[in-house]
Structure formats: structure tokens, C-alpha cells
Amino acid sequence: MADELSASFPVLGIAAWSGTGKTTLLEKLLPLLGEHGLRVAVIKHAHHSFEVDQPGKDSYKLRRAGAAPMLIASRERFALMQETPGQAEPDLAQLIAMMALHQPDLVIVEGFKAWPIPKLVLYREGIGDDAILTGPWVKAVALSAPAPVQLAASVAQLNLDDSEAIARWIVAWVNVNDNALASSTLAFNKER
């Protein structure tokens, strides 16, 4: 795991234990963030082998036959599939670098709990260890009940069931962090 990663856009982790409702919340948040004018890319961590193509389709057959990578494209979308046999867990820094081409306003990272990136932590009472709520990278928590542990004063507390309030917090967080990125990029360019 890299000690830090750099990107020309804000990166926000959404961390939660399985069963908390990460995907359900993201399905609600993405259209709301779009209404605020944000282009949001998502990187999702999978803990198991997965297929993005259907058995029997040509692209599936060609990938299984050894095409590496396999890119399938149409007028509506394209997908690039790359086999990574024997690889350790994916390197988040490399995945984020792949997003730069698309120039998103924000990259949301679902999973990758251990990576040192700013996080919005979702916590549903009775699901998982409440230690997920603490740590230097936690910027906000969305809870289903009062926090079971003392949170840092700088951590925003949100209602897990209020997707509009969570979206407003994310937009405000992006605006602050996008300005900070622009300032640091400008300072870097001045030093050259």
C-alpha cells in the first residue's frame, strides 16, 4: 500500500461494514451530486473474483482465451477488462491514476478502508466494529443512531438516512478540497 496518493481531483472514501447500505446510499447520492453539477467517478473494491461480462458473449470468450486486456466498445459504453492473476490486493494509487483521463470532479472510493484517504464513514448500529468511526482520515460519519464512541470535534455527524444532507456535505467538502488542490497545484507550478 502506498503511503500517500496524489490526484488533481478530490478523492473521498466511503467506508462501512458489509450490510450497512453503501451501495444503496451511493445509488441515491450519485444523482443528487450530479444535480449539483459534479462529475463523479467511483472505484469499488471487490473482495472476491467477479465477472463484468456474461458467459457465452464474444468478449467473455476472448478474455477467457487469453486476450489481455480485453476492450469491448459500443456507441453507448466501453469496458476494459484486465486479468490480474496472482496480484495482491489492488493498488488504490494506480486505480486513481487511471481516473485522471476522465477528469472527474470527485472520485468516490467504496471500500479500501485501510488506505490513507479522507473518509465518509457509514455506520449502522449493530453492524461491525465501531472502531471504524475513529481515525485521522475520518472527515464525516453518517449514523443510524447516536455515535457509540467519542468522535473528534472536526468530524461532521450526519444522519445515515438523509441522503440529501449527505450530498450537501459532500458538495461542500469537494468545494473546500478542490480549492485546496488548485492552490497546491498553483504553488507547485510556481516552484518549477
UniProtKB/TrEMBL annotation:
GO terms for biological process: Mo-molybdopterin cofactor biosynthetic process. GO terms for molecular function: GTP binding. Residues 11-140 form the Molybdopterin-guanine dinucleotide biosynthesis protein B (MobB) domain. Signal peptide: none annotated. Gene3D superfamilies: P-loop containing nucleotide triphosphate hydrolases (3.40.50.300). This is Molybdopterin-guanine dinucleotide biosynthesis protein B (MobB) domain-containing protein.
